[in-house]
Amino acid sequence: SASTPPPEVITLLSPAYEVVAENQQGTPTGSLNAPMVLRIPYNQAALAAQGFSEDQILPVYFSPAGNGWEPVKSTVTDRQANEVVIFDDRLGSFALIATPVYQRVYLPLVIR
Predict the structure, then answer these.
(1) How far apart are CA 73 and CA 99, in angstroms?
(2) What does the pLDDT look like over 18-61, one tens digit per residue?
(3) Residue 39 and residue 84 in contact, taking contact as beta carbons nearer than 8 Å
């Protein structure tokens, strides 16, 4: 499974948002009845001041199974609203991070 880079190269772009589920009586339940939509905002000026672009935002989920932070599979970046929309069915913590791009490699296109 995919994992995030080591903590020393991660920049936290948002607070961690904890998703919990309760029944109508307020008792915690162990799962969601349906997939959720979670919107996490980001500040574009703060992002640029830290040297990142919107393309470098990575939504992550904290895996209680010991895998640490792992990328969320189903997301959309709403650049108009400056938020990342996460579609998931898990309870737990979600956040936005960024990692530096040290080097970009452009490979030549070979047409045969």
Answers:
(1) 17
(2) 998 888 898 888 888 889 999 999 999 999 999 899 999 999 99
(3) yes
